[in-house]
C-alpha cells in the first residue's frame, strides 16, 4: 500500500468518525429536546435499525443487554420510527393503565397492512377513537367475557375430540406427533366456529389456517415500516399482498354469506351452521354500525373475523407449545398439573351443581309465591259488613 493510500484512508476514517459523532450527539440532543428516555446512539437515517439487524439475534436478547446499560426505560430509533422500550412492571402499568389513553393509538399503517385491515377497520389497527372503541367494546361483550367463554364449551369439546383423534392417527402412522401444527389447527377450528358459528371440515380449516398464517407473515413489520422512504423500493410486495387478500376473501366470504343467510332465515337448521342465532361473533358484527363506517361490508367482516382468528391462533398455539416443552423438561410437574386439572374440573362440576340447585330453588319459590298470589283473593266483600275485607297472611 502506498503512502498516499494510507493518508486517504486515514482522512476518510477521521471524517467518518466526526460524521458519526456529529449525528449520534445530535441524535442525543434531539432526544433530550423531545424529552425522550436515553438510548443507544444510532446511525444517521437508520438510527439503531442496522445495529439490530446486523446482530442477527432475537430482539429480546438485544433488549436485555441494553436494559443493563440504560435502565428499565430507554429509546431506540428504528429508522424513522421511535420505539420506547419499557421493561419494568411498574412503568408498564403507568404507561398502559394509568396513562393508557395517551399511548393507546397505533402507528401509521404501511400500504401492505392497509390492504388487510380494510383501511384500518380492525381492533389492532384502528386509531384510538370512536371506531376503535366501538369494535373493542363489541369484541369484549361478544367474545372474551367469562359468560361467553363458558357458553362456547361445546366448541372446545368438539375440537378437542378431533384433536385427540388426529394425534392418535398421527402417532400410529408416524410414531410421533407434531405439537405446533396440530395445536394451530385445533385452535383455529375453535376460533372459526366462535367467529362464524360453523363446524367445517378439516380440509377447509387447513386452508383458512394456511392463508391466515401467510397474512400474519405478510403484515409483520418490514423495512418500509421503519423507513417509509424506502416504500417505493418494495412496491413489488403490493401485488403479492393483493393476491393474498384475494385468497383470504375467497376462503372466508362463503362463510360470511352462509351465516348471513342463516341469520336472515331466523336460524333455521342448516348444515355447517352449528351455533344458534346470535351466538357467533359475526352475528354481532352484522348488527354493528361503528361510527363513521355504518353497517359493515364483507371486506370489513372478513378483516374483523380474521383478526380474531389470527390473534388467537398463533398466541395460544405458542403458549401450548411452550407449556408442552416445560412439561417434558420438568416431568414432576406433569402429575401436579394433572391433579390441578382434575381438582379444577371437580370444583367446577360442584359449583355448577350448586348453581343449578340454587336456580331450581329460586324457580320453586317463585312458583309458590305466584300460587299464593292466585289463591289468596286480594279483597273479598263480606256480606255482613258491605266493605272490602283484607285477609291477613
Ligand atoms: C395465550 C394467548 C394470547 C396471548 C399471549 C395474547 C397476547 C396479546 C397481546 C400481547 C396483545 C397486544 C398486541 C398489541 O397491542 O399490539 C393482544 C392483542 C389482541 N389479542 Fe391477544 N393474546 C392471546 C389470545 C388471544 C385470543 C384467543 C384472541 C381472540 C379470540 C385474541 C385477540 C386479540 C385482539 C383482537 C387483540 C387486539 C386488541 C387491541 O388492540 O385492543 N388474543 N393479544
TrEMBL record:
GO cellular component, one term: membrane
Protein name: TPX2, C-terminal
One protein family per Pfam: p450
Keyword Heme appears in the UniProt entry: no
Main location: membrane
Entry's Gene Ontology molecular function annotations: heme binding; iron ion binding; oxidoreductase activity, acting on paired donors, with incorporation or reduction of molecular oxygen, NAD(P)H as one donor, and incorporation of one atom of oxygen
Record keywords, A-Z: Membrane, Metal-binding, Transmembrane, Transmembrane helix
Membrane-protein topology: Single-pass membrane protein
The keyword Cell inner membrane belongs to this UniProt entry's keyword annotation: no
Compartment list: Membrane
